[in-house]
Structures are given as structure tokens and as C-alpha cells.
């Protein structure tokens, strides 16, 4: 017979993940191969426009991580505003999601199953959609739960929506 877990639930803090407590944390835990130069430039723009923000990414490919850090350094954004975390087991990953203020979806390859995890964590997610199936996964999932106002069809709206969430987050603090 199955027995319930008796271990206490895992709790993780921002500090343990290298995140400042007072920061607006923008998590993007999709696979690194989905991060296009255009998408990464949007995220850099967000770092410039939201001074209290940090970008939180997965460090699962040494070459990609090195290249992203180089790109950030060339952009003039302080490299300390990008935090890389190694992949975690599923329970820790779900706890990490709850530490962020917003989840940034990738485009044109949206996150698929990750979107479900983000929704279950209660984390707002901004997604940009296009005409292909892989660029409409976020739209499909968020629309099905009446959260289509987090779905946008262009870069400017994506940036604007994240900025709106950051202002709401600041107001709630």
C-alpha cells in the first residue's frame, strides 16, 4: 500500500539560491536551447528597465552559460543581476518556482510542461505567441485557465506586461 510522505515539505529561500530578497525575480527555466538572441535581448531590456530586477536561469550547459554571461557583460548590465542555478530534483524545482515574481516564457519555442509547473506554483507567466504550435503552447494553457491577459503577440507588449507585473509586485511589498 502507498503511504504518505512523512518528511516535512522542502523549503528553500531566495538567499540559498543566490537571489536578493528585495529583487524582482524574473525566472526563465526553459531549456537553454530555446533562448534565442532576440528573446535574450528582450530580457536584457527588462533588466535595464526594471532596476530592481534579476534574471534567474538554469545552468545546464557550460557553453551556453558562458555565452549568456558574455552577452550580458557586453550589454552593460551588471553580471551579478543574472543568477544561474543548476538543475534540481522535481520537488526543489517546484519550490524554486515559488521564489520568483514572474516567469518569462521563451519565443518562438514556448515552454510546454514547464508552463504547467509555473501555473501550479501560482506564478504569473508572460508568454508571447505566434502562428506555430510551438509558439502557442503558453497561450493555449493560460487561456484555458482564464489567464490570457498574460499572453501577448509582440515584443513591446511582452516588455510592458512584465513591467506591469513588477509594479504590482512592488505595490504589494
Strand content: 5-15%
- List how many beta strands DSSP finds: 6
Shape: globular
The neighbouring-strand order within the major sheet is 3-2-1-4-5-6
Structural class: alpha/beta
Main β-sheet, in a few words? 6 strands, parallel
Q: What is the N-to-C order of secondary-structure elements (H for helix, E for strand)?
A: EHEHEHEHEHEH
The helical percent reads 40-55%
* Average pLDDT level: 92
What is the rounded distance between the termini?
Answer: 45 Å
Residue runs with pLDDT of under 50 for 5 or more positions? none
Q: What is the CA-based Rg, rounded?
A: 16 Å
Number of helices, counting only DSSP H or I runs of 4 residues or more: 6
Describe the structure.
Strand 4 (102-104), helix 4 (113-121) and strand 5 (125-128) form a beta-alpha-beta unit. The N and C termini lie far apart (45 Å). The protein has helices at 37-49, 62-75, 90-97, 113-121, 137-144, 155-172; strands at residues 24-28, 53-58, 82-85, 102-104, 125-128, 151-152. It is built from six helices and six strands. With 173 residues, the protein is of the alpha/beta class. The protein has a six-stranded parallel β-sheet, with helices on both faces. Helix 1 packs parallel to helix 6.
Amino acid at each position: 500500500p502507498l503511504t504518505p510522505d512523512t518528511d516535512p515539505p522542502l523549503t528553500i529561500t531566495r538567499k540559498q539560491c543566490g537571489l536578493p530578497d528585495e529583487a524582482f525575480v524574473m525566472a526563465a527555466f526553459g531549456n537553454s536551447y530555446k533562448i534565442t538572441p532576440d528573446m535574450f535581448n528582450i530580457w536584457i531590456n527588462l533588466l535595464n528597465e526594471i532596476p530592481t530586477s534579476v534574471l534567474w536561469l538554469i545552468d545546464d550547459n557550460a557553453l551556453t552559460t558562458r555565452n549568456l554571461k558574455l552577452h550580458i557583460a557586453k550589454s552593460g548590465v551588471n553580471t551579478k543581476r543574472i543568477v544561474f542555478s543548476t538543475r534540481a530534483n522535481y520537488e526543489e524545482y517546484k519550490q524554486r518556482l515559488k521564489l520568483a515574481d514572474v516567469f518569462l516564457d521563451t519565443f518562438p519555442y514556448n515552454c510546454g510542461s514547464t508552463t504547467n509547473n509555473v501555473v501550479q506554483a501560482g506564478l504569473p507567466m508572460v508568454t508571447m505567441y505566434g502562428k506555430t504550435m510551438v509558439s502557442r503552447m503558453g497561450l493555449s494553457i493560460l487561456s484555458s485557465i482564464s489567464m490570457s491577459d498574460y499572453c501577448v503577440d509582440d515584443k513591446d507588449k511582452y516588455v510592458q506586461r512584465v513591467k506591469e507585473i513588477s509594479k504590482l509586485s512592488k505595490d504589494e511589498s
